[in-house]
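Q: Convert this sequence to structure tokens.
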Amino acid sequence: MLEKVVTLYRKAEMGIASELSGVTAEVIDETRFYDVGYMQTQISRIQRGLKRIESEVKTSLEIQDNSDYGKKRRSELMKQREMLLFRMVFLASNSFKNLDDCVKMADGYHFPFMQCVRGLLEYRAGRKENALKILEAYYREHGSVKEHFLVNKVFGVLLAEKRLYQKSAPFLTYALQFIPDDMEALEALRSCYRQMGETERCGVVEEILMVLGGSEVYA
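A:
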């Protein structure tokens, strides 16, 4: 089913170029969708990296290696640890249920991306106005959130609810290239295309929705 959905995306040429939504080219061709298996594999790999780093730091401290090399190596390892922790937070935050753990993991670090996590937390709590303000501020400052499904989806949905359809569509399109069968994002994108008068693209999204849920539901 997923292959058919991807084929429909290509048919519609839905990869809208936008400096706001990030780089959309080649995402589908990489077939790197954010399914459960992909996420678990990536997070497991990060966890192994963190254990390796922590083991090496512990050994260095136990042998009291205070040479210039030892100090430099520990500094490098801590930087690597920080990068891996950020990647863990970034990936895990694609699910609402992981957001609280993401906050705990990021405690003590200055990750600008945590502004997006706060926006997602506000959205999860039903405080959509606050969520939109937080995410808008992040996008204004940083331009895009590349390779993140949930942030782009939520921002796109919020913009669509504000009837900012032209602005919403690229974010929803970008999010759907990671999880092409997300119903909420598809329905929001269909609404955008309908309101924008994009009849052909709207028809393709409706076809995708029929593939996923049946024409009796999405007619």
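The chain has a mean pLDDT of 81.
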